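Researcher: Can you fold this with aspartic acid in place?
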Amino acid sequence: MQVFKFGGASVKDADGVRNLGRVVQAHQDHALLIVVSAMGKTTNLLEKLVQYHVYGTGNAADVLAEAQQYHHAIAEGLFPDHRHPVHNEVANRFVEIEWILEEPPMDPYDYLYDQIVAVGELVSTTIVSHYLNEIGLKTSWVDARDYILTDNTHREGRVDWNTTTARINEQLPRILENQLVVTQGFIGSTSENFTTTLGREGSDYSAAIFAACLDAESLTIWKDVPGVLNADPKWFDKTELIPELSYLDAIELTYYGATVIHPKTIKPLKNKNIPLYVKSFVDIESRGTQIKSTNESLPVPSFIFKVNQVLISILPKDFSFIVEDNLSDIFSRFHAHKIKVNMMHNSAVSFSVSIDNTGSNVDALLEDLQSRYEVQHQHGLELITIRYYNQQTIDRVLVAKEIIMELKDSYTCQLLVRKL
Ligand code: ASP
Ligand code: MG
């Protein structure tokens, strides 16, 4: 059997869902489990809804209406007959959010977030599975929360692999024998049956979990790009498709911020030696990229750009050395504010890191650090990572830029820069 994953961009409108149908129709020679994300920008919209509801900064009911209209329009485009059961089911998916909005927000933010944001995936898969049945493909809608068990870490659920593997193997192979399975990316549930999410863009990871547990022959992620490119086309006019990539290079590239696949996706696949294909849902015959176990290194240098970086330099107040107990204290403060470090450098008396500017939690972190350390910070920087760099590639990215911090090892060069 194989696993396919379709992201939000691939199902952003009725035509997208029809195209998904064509992709699936062209691959009927295998049993297939299909993982789907929320449609278009739904997750962002529902995140906004949570913020408005909890902080009262806007009208949550209006945002809910917008999400409902968007999905109704897609369902209507696909099923013009108003009596079709999909319309009721789509409406019902939002009832949970209506109930939450009726109460004042007493529950912890991250918990509420998961209960609300998960609706995006539940409603998208409802529409997709009805559509596949409509075009004659026998399809079963499966609730990923019945299979993926996580701990109670809301918004970043950690998967309990033993139980998840057992649950998946108990039920799904039998269903897959004579039906397609459509299920949600991004969501799981706790042992008390509360919904959790696996972290933004986590649907790729969900697909890898299902593929690994089912010992799939392969996982294919269908994207709006032709495969893994050596840079995001947003930054370069000319990019190159990488036809083959080792698991290791794929992990390194995603670790440094390549957004083509979620960083957690590779490891479960690598453990089971399951190849990962990244292909275009626009040009479904093209080969795309194959990620597998190989000793070949990347054929071309790859570039990863991260904008909106904050450089934080931390010095002990008494000018003492940066020693292990300071470092462990510093890291625990980063962890407490859910901040991930993109680049770090330490000297005898200072420790510097570059992080994404994620807003209020960065301010809270800075305040927290200032209670114990001397802290300096610089905003508005850009982090450029080059894998398999050489001087020419460095010169290419440094035009009109000034280097603030630079780190090199034999394969990777990281440059934290400021625009001149
Ligand atoms: N819908 C979720 C998100 O946008 C998960 C995913 O797309 O992978 O983050
Ligand atoms: Mg997405």
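Model: Folded with aspartic acid in place. The two ends are 53 Å apart (CA to CA).
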